[in-house]
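Field guide to reading this record: the first block holds the primary sequence, the second block holds the structure written as discrete tokens, and the final block holds curator observations. Each block starts with its own label. This record concerns TIGR04141 family sporadically distributed protein, catalogued under organism Entomomonas asaccharolytica.

BLOCK 1 — SEQUENCE
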Amino acid sequence: MKTRPFSIFLLKQGYNASNSIKPTSDLLSNIGASNLPESASLYIADNMETTPWWVNYFGIESNLTQKNKGALIFLPVDDRCFALSFGFVSHHLIDASYEYDFGLKVTLNSLDPQELRSADIVDPSAARRKRMQLPITSDLTYLDFDSNSEILKSLTGKVKSEYVNLFKNATGSISLRVGLKIEPENLLGLCQQLLTLYNSEEYLTSFPNIQKIMPEKDPVKVAILNNILLENFINRNQDLLLSVPEIIDYKDNIFCTFSGKAGIQKVYSDVSLNGFYDYLDDRGINEITLDILKKTELNLCDSDGKTTGSYSVYRSLIFDTPLQSDNHIYHLCEGEWYRIDTDYLAKLKESIDAVCEDTNLIAYNHDNRNNGVLTYSEENYNQAAIEGKENFFCLDQTNISPDGYSQIEPCDILTFNEQAEQCILYHIKISSRSSQLSHLFNQGANSIELLYLEETCRDKLKELLQQQINNDLTIINNIIDKKNYKVIFGIITKKDKNLRSDNLPLFSKISLLRVLRALELSKTEVSLTFIQDDSLIKEGYSKHPQIIAIIKNDEHGKKELYPFQGQVFSHTIKINRCDKNIKEHDVDTKFKVYVKENENGELTYLRSGGYEVIQ
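BLOCK 2 — STRUCTURE
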């Protein structure tokens, strides 16, 4: 008998052929079959013939058509039901109808851990996906899988000897994909064994660290988690964070707006939920729904409100929550939910709390002020933090990388402990947002790697210090060459320093743990400190000016709106597209209005901002 490919799904409790197919499906169910397993149900995809796109594209003079065929077979097993998919038909299944960990869990329980061939791996903190394949079978180590920071999406390999009678090789993700030599009447027995494998916890012995972090794709659980998220958003829970879902540089001034409903857009000089709540309040949006979070956009912009990037607010939220139904913590990051093992979280907390220490740097209160608008400035802080401190040097925006390589800062602030003969490198970051901190931690590790391995990089560091010190650098140079380094990550935040690792988003903790272990190899001491943010809350402002305007008669005796004298705009410039309700007021009536100026200096009334009569 030939080996034939099977794709097998396990339906959730309570689902079967009668309630697992999408209502819009065009599968046929009235097809006879003489060799179906007992109690099985058959659904056929018999689509109309179509002409491949490339026939007309190349002008092929032949009647070439194609037709997609497929089948779903539902097979009841004990109190559960399996769906066997042949061809491209599994998309006809309702998303909430099947178990999302069936294929991977059966594969983990059946594969020989020393006979693995391929793995699909995701690093959530870096949004990086990779497929690792080996020419010969080996263990998971050779597939470059880091169980402390990565997610195993799919696994392929040879099965253990006791399961060879079922199948020799397996690939598992949501479904189980196997090649089988089996008669139809034996499928029921096969599925009974697969159900036993799915319910087994044996994989925890063979792969003890495999499921520390798992994506949660079950629509039912995701719906529950989204409801919890929404409840916490409505109650303005302080543990809920808004974060730009990509790396941004706080050396640039970061501004943002929100869009989704008409109205004057305020520009905020910091990305935070306070700004979003302000946006909702301004627009009178009192009933918050998940749809609003998904459709409202967080827009990165410059100080004039010109957008440089946009993201769904939902995708930009970071949140952790437990579920009463299981022993896991769930983490929302970049619009995806992840299930985290609680034991792993405890070890993560223990490792990071152990390196937390109080800072010896000043508190942050060094905003830039431009036209009354406050913006964060790491550059201002780094310069201020070294003032009055002996042997403290600001190396912000400098470079020690070898020629031809991208810029790598040695650190933001550098100092020395002559007694311990130690070089101390501070890496400073405003905010406790995941993407920013992961970048910060990796930057610290990259700097140390260069200083350890590249003499030219150490020489460049010495040159940078020579530019700031006129005295003899013999002692300092000797300390640098001893390679006795300490890295201190300083995070500027309004959060309580006593919360330690609880101040960090999950994937920032994971990134930091990875960096801690990497730096341990070079015997580099690492500390994490929280620097008090004493700066003022960043208020929003309109990207369009609000002015005082007055009703006047033009040269034809027609009522028009003009800027009142003594403001930035000339009182002779007519404000176009004025609201007709404004013109119903008497001449010399004054208003507060928002206006937009075009490149020709013409002014337009902004209806979205409304108007206010000044008595």
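BLOCK 3 — OBSERVATIONS
The mean pLDDT is 85.
Residues 434-453 form the longest helix (20 residues).
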